[in-house]
Amino acid sequence: MNDPIWRGVIDRYKEYLPVTDKTPIVTLFEGNTPLIEAKNLMRELGNNLRIYLKYEGLNPTSSFKDRGMTMAVSKALEEGSRAVMCASTGNTSASAAAYAARCGMQCVVLIPEGAISLGKLSQAMMYGARVVAVKGNFDQALDLVREITDRYPITLVNSINPYRIEGQKTGAFEICDVLSQAPDYHAIPVGNAGNITAYWKGYKEYKQAGKIDTLPKMIGFQAARSAPIVEGRVIEHPETIATAIRIGNPASWKKAEEARDESDGLIDKVTDSEIIKAYKMLAHLEGIFVEPASAAGVAGVIKLNKRGYFPKDSLVVCILTGHGLKDPDRAVKVSEPPVVVPARLEKVVELLGY
Ligand code: AN7
């Protein structure tokens, strides 16, 4: 029997992870995020699918990155490292900064100047990371981080660090533990392609361990003007309002293609307007506020469902990777502004139509 008190993903799934009793576990009790049945969304889409939403925005730094970061930082500490570094579209930097703070390590983050959302920037700054804004995009920042961490005694904590993938695969375990089976389809946004890689690894390992009998088809979604895997070429100047996945040369490109092909799934793209539509639907229909990139998976499911891609009653899990409060500017931009009235009862009541 597992300890009923939740102490994070390493504690819960250590037998599947490269840790020993000597590994100093750096945790903020990440994981154990809710898997929410999307009844209203299902009805809106014609009751053809069973859809569950894995709300990863409820992790300690409000994105899925914490699952991988607890592993990467714990192993860095075990190996005697004093500093970690990453390039980031925002969420990795927030998570790295928090876990480094937790164990007194230094953290350096390289972000594309002017291209990360305010919530994420504020997190990295508050947790005390050294924040460096690069006049370039994420891909250029990641190249710099690879070179610097090769030359200097700093541990790289982007998802090319294999411990990141190890931690993130626990999301698949949680889904299967709740459903007592694997879903038929696993829908997920794709940026640097670490998460689709991690989930596929997790499902395969759970099947190997006899915990599930079947594997899901992995269906990944890139933003239309940042879709290198779909286009089959590096995108030099990726663009999208979903800044988290504004990535033109994903580090785990090959692994994402393996996940797609081994699972008989697909990787497709969704436009910014499809992303915004799904972003608003999740909030309006289900009361679930995610950041734009997180809506890409749902936008993809909506798109494929219209085309008749899914057999009836398929069980679909969508990973909602980050919280909506990460990017409040976007939320305000796509919404009706508040109506301004004098501070008088009759004015408010009149406005409400009573
Ligand atoms: C909310 O933080 O790459 O395909 O530097 O923040 O594993 O890269 C973030 C990626 C999806 C894509 N949703 O995941 C970073 C970064 C959100 C994200 C992705 C990211 P990957």
Layout of strands and helices, then pairs:
Layout (H helix, E strand, L loop, with lengths): L8 H5 L21 E3 L1 H6 L4 E7 L9 H14 L4 E5 L3 H12 L3 E7 L5 H9 L3 E5 L3 H14 L3 E2 L5 H7 L1 H10 L5 E5 L4 H15 L8 E7 L4 H4 L21 H10 L3 E5 L1 H15 L9 H11 L7 E7 L7 H6 L11 H8 L2
Parallel strand pairs: 2-10, 3-4, 3-6, 4-5, 7-8, 7-10, 8-9
Antiparallel strand pairs: 1-2
Helix pairs in contact: 3-4, 3-7, 4-5, 7-9, 8-9, 9-11, 12-13
The structure holds ligand AN7.
Ligand AN7 binds next to helix 4 and helix 9.
Keywords:
354 residues, alpha/beta, four-stranded parallel sheet, 10 strands, binds ligand AN7
What do you see in this structure?
Helix 3 (65-78) packs across helix 4 and helix 3 packs across helix 7 (162-168). Helix 4 links the parallel strand 3 and strand 4. This protein is 41% helix and 15% strand. The mean pLDDT is 97. It has 15 helices and 10 strands. With 354 residues, it is of the alpha/beta class. The chain is globular, with a radius of gyration of 20 Å. The strands form 2 sheets. A 6-stranded mixed β-sheet has the order 1-2-10-7-8-9, sandwiched between helices. It has a 4-stranded parallel β-sheet with strand order 5-4-3-6. The chain has helices at 9-13, 39-44, 65-78, 91-102, 118-126, 138-151, 162-168, 170-179, 194-208, 228-231, 253-262, 272-286, 296-306, 328-333, 345-352, and strands at 35-37, 49-55, 83-87, 106-112, 130-134, 155-156, 185-189, 217-223, 266-270, 314-320. The protein binds ligand AN7. Ligand AN7 is lined by residues 63, 88-92, 159, 189-195, 244-245, 291, 293-294, 321-322.
